[in-house]
Design goal:
Elements lengths: L5 H9 L7 H12 L9 H5 L6 E3 L4 E6 L19 H24 L3 E6 H5 L4 H13 L6
Parallel strand pairs: 2-3
Antiparallel strand pairs: 1-2
Length: about 150
């Protein structure tokens, strides 16, 4: 059972940001320090399937920063289905996963390289150096040389 009234729950949910989240800002800062230049709200971002969080036009790469809960990150300690209305949440998260897959496939068909960075990889400061070392390989990797 939900601890909030429907009105309060609506207010709480409306305050969840979909842009400029802490994980996104952390990743953008890391990319900038590594010398990558990218767009966040550029014209290419708005018209690409799924509206990627970060677009690196020079590298023909898009990056999605997925929240572990909203995108159902399997085997992640930060993802678990809520106890209230579990069937509804399961359907919602499965729909999010299906949409993510459709968007990735559409982007690949357009010639873009797709990178997904999970929120949990950006959460711990001790994990950031590993990610910073791994990003150039992720961005530079192409389908032909995997």
């Amino acid at each position: 059972m939900d601890v909030f009234t429907p009105e309060k729950r609506s207010e709480v949910m409306s305050r969840i940001r979909c842009r400029d989240t802490k994980p996104e800002l952390t990743l953008r800062s890391m990319l900038h320090r590594l010398g990558y230049r990218f767009t966040v709200n550029g014209p290419k971002n708005q018209h690409l399937p799924g509206k990627p969080d970060i677009v690196l036009p020079k590298h023909q790469t898009v990056i999605f920063v997925h929240g572990c809960f909203w995108h159902g990150h399997e085997h992640c300690p930060h993802f678990r289905l809520p106890k209230s209305r579990p069937a509804w949440w399961k359907a919602k998260i499965e729909a999010n996963r299906a949409r993510d897959l459709r968007n990735e496939n559409a982007l690949r068909m357009l010639g873009w390289h797709v990178v997904t960075v999970w929120e949990c990889a950006l959460r711990n400061k001790s994990d950031l150096p590993w990610l910073a070392k791994r990003l150039p390989a992720l961005i530079g990797k192409r389908i032909g040389n995997q």
